[in-house]
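Entry 12.
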Amino acid sequence: MRRWCVSLADFTQCTTSDGRYASCVDARCDLDYEEMFVPAGPFVMGIDEDESSSGCLPAISARGERIVTLSGYFIDRYEVTNRRFKRCHRVGRCPPGWYDGSVTRPAYLTDPAYDDYPALYFRMTEAQEYCAYEGKRLPSEAEWEKAARGGCEVVPPETCDEQDERVVPWDWPPLDDYPYTCAEANHARYIGESCPNDTDRVGARPAGRSPYGVDDMIGNVDEWTSDCAASYADCPGGCVDPRMPCDPTAPPVYWDVVVRGGSFTCSGHLTHREVYATDGGDETTGFRCVRPMFIESDAASAKGGDGSTTGSRRREGEDDGQRIENRFAFVSRRLVPGMPLAGGERPASTASLSSRPG
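Predicted 3D structure (tokens):
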């Protein structure tokens, strides 16, 4: 991990002098591109009962609960912002903005006052391309939900149980003892209180951060995932790093893709699933990107800068991967004040929730 950057805009991962993970941009470790680490292990995904759509588009069911185990990864702390998009355009890697305004602001993308607000109107395939520009990719549904919900190591005991079924990112611990106001999320339910009835600056609501320090997982903008819509009855790969791929034989315009998190126009728990067509990007739609701990294949996206491919090598080798895992408790405690240390050094159990007594 570098605290400084060798080449211009290559988007390799780096660490700042105070130990935060970020991306190398213009030869410096830039916290506008800060990344939060989500450790390998199990988490509870889904919900037992369908929830109200609460103003969102018709939802696809998030029933039922199951234990999903994921590899470690990094996720953007913030939704991709106008600042990041405009830089991509300046260096010739992104087209001009599609629309300038937001719901209440005629000038949004072009007004520097909104540089740190979410970039809007991205179609799913355009969001994929942007993440590839940064050497990353869109999160799977499971990766998005774990980053919002937290793994089973967050709250003792170390086994996956009821305390790991939280439905908003800031509910840890205890379960079902949380506020639900505009201080936690830019959420339509609280328009007229302090929510702006439009997007808001990313990271403006630290009270709503997830257990891993990720901001704005609920509200602000809907966020694209890489998964096509499918029932939770199927869990590919035995619920280990599951993906719901889209049909490669169908043109992307016919894909139905899951978006997560709700927006300023509708409310939703972190389990809430909506389905958009890939060209459904609008004034409520944004995204964030994921960097796997290790490069996944030669087909991984090209980095920015010189456009060279990342290859299939491990990012920094076995020792560095272990060092990242060992640092998780430190990073969580530093970025989310008051969070207890993760529940011990042993991995959490992957026993099924259905095995609980009663």
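Annotation: Residues 167 and 269 are 5 Å apart (CA to CA). The mean pLDDT is 78.
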